[in-house]
Amino acid sequence: MPDPYEELLKKAYTNITETKGSHERFVIPDPKVYIEGKTTVFENFAEIADKLNRKKDDLMKYLVGELGTAGKIEGNRAVFNGKFEPSSLNSMIRNYVEDYVICSECGRPDTKLVKDGRIPVLKCDACGGHRPVKKRKVKTDEGPKVRFEEGAILDLEIQSLSRRGDGMIREGKYTVYIPGAKPGQKLKVRIARVAGSTVFGEISQ
Ligand SMILES: [Zn+2]
Q1: Ligand 1 ion: residues within 5 Å (CB)
Q2: Cα(109) to centroid(ligand 1), Å
Q3: Exposure string (b/e) for 175-194, b if CB count within 10 Å is 16 or more?
Q4: Do residues 100 and 133 lie in contact, with contact meaning Cβ atoms separated by under 8 Å?
Q5: CA 108 to centroid of ligand 1, rounded, Å
Q6: Mean pLDDT of 112-133
Q7: CATH number, domain 33-132
Q8: Domain extents for the chain?
Q9: Mean pLDDT of the 50-74 span
Q10: pTM as predicted
Q11: Ligand 1 center to residue 185 CA distance, Å?
């Protein structure tokens, strides 16, 4: 004879885990990135491309473009020439998801990339919405007031928080990410890496 209270608990628990399960596909695994000799290995590249439901070649093309280097797909991993911070790739994946995966109408990732003539369009299976893929155009006429150079230490004021919880600053065409920094803080920041218009800083002690 099953205890009705226990049955109830069991049912409640099942409901909780089911709810959790339906959100699980929104979670993108953190890129596993390490440096090997003069290259950077993105260990779970294929897993992430798969999770995003994007072709490995498409994601690769995006990443080499953003990193400004050459690279190749080797089975499940991607290998890039040069040494890159894991946080650079992390941030690029996040930008990619925002621009090439997430539907701006309903915020779901159930989308497809299709071509409308030569323009890539993001089509949403969940709500039917579609929009041209946002291009992060680098404006050359809009020079920043601050020069971001790798290794430079700058006095910066944190403006906001990124989705991931890193401190963020927008300056001209640049977006600066500083892990551990909070909006409003004025900090000495060491510029760790500049990848196109994405800048990665570290709080300098
Ligand atoms: Zn949608």
Answers
A1: 103, 105-106, 124, 126-127, 129
A2: 8
A3: bbbbbebeeeeebebbbbbb
A4: yes
A5: 6
A6: 88
A7: 3.30.70.3150
A8: 33-132, 153-203
A9: 94
A10: 0.56
A11: 36
> 28 CA to middle of ligand 1, Å?
18
**What token pair was written down for 106?**
């309903």
Tens of pLDDT, residue by residue over 162-200, are 888 999 998 888 899 999 999 999 999 999 999 988 999
The pLDDT value recorded for residue 27 is 82
Q: In terms of pLDDT, which residue wins out, 6 or 102?
A: 102
Residue 103 Cα to ligand 1 middle (Å): 5
- Around Cβ 160, how many Cβ atoms within 10 Å? 12
Q: How far is the CA of 163 from the centre of ligand 1 (A)?
A: 20
Share of the chain above pLDDT 70, in %: 82
Q: What's the CA-to-centroid distance between 30 and ligand 1, angstroms? A: 24
Predicted confidence at residue 139, as pLDDT, reads: 43
Q: CATH top-level class for 153-203?
A: mainly beta
Q: How far is the CA of 113 from the centre of ligand 1 (A)?
A: 13
Instruction: Give 146 Cα–ligand 1 centroid separation in angstroms.
Output: 38
pLDDT tens-digit readout, 82-102: 999 888 899 999 999 989 999
